Amino acid sequence: MGGVDPKKTIQLNTTNAICPIGEITGKKNIGESKIPVLSCEGACIRGEIARLAANIILRKEPYARGCHGELITVPESSIATWIKTAEKVVLIDGCFLRCHGRLFENIIDREKLIQFDALSHYNRYTEIFDYDDVPEVERKEVAQSVANWVIESLNSNVAEHSFVSCETKDEKSSGCCG
Ligand code: SF4
């Protein structure tokens, strides 16, 4: 059977084209030393909750929402420059597979990348794929809980770990998983 060996390097068709509002936002975030928050972009309920949680956190200082599309495929953009030069980068991945964390570890300095496994916090919906099989109100409540957990972790010693999961000993002992 043909196809691409996933362990081989993937060639990206990068571009020098720019998104005007992305340039304005990236430069503003660099100037204000914002910390990028990126999330899983998976199509399932786990990706949706990670994305919603990231969108809650961006309303708090000093965080702002990062775009991994530009990070990966528009490497000279201001958004990509901001994310690559930020003091640290927060990533909320959807689940233990860490699809985005494994990508970013090859782009962003590992010591700057703080990864969270959102599913390990709420530990529900493992039999569900489509995000709208969970009512919107419930999705928002769970996302808020994930966002609170991430913020509390970032404000504590837990955030010194490069990968934060409720499977870790420190967090179990602190009762973060409820
Ligand atoms: S981290 Fe989990 S939820 Fe996100 S894309 Fe990967 S498998 Fe899907």
Structure report:
- By secondary structure, this protein is of the alpha/beta class.
- The protein has one domain: Rossmann fold, CATH 3.40.50.
- Strands 2-1-3-4-5 form a 5-stranded parallel sheet.
- Helix 5 links the parallel strand 3 and strand 4.
- The chain binds iron/sulfur cluster.
- The site of iron/sulfur cluster has 11 residues, from helix 2.
How many separate domains make up the residues? 1
Q: Based on the coordinates given, report the CATH architecture.
A: 3-Layer(aba) Sandwich
Protein structure class: alpha/beta
**Helix count?**
8
Number of strands: 5
Q: What name is given to the CATH topology?
A: Rossmann fold
Average pLDDT, rounded to a whole number, is 89
| CATH class type | Alpha Beta
Q: Using the CA coordinates, give the radius of gyration.
A: 17 Å
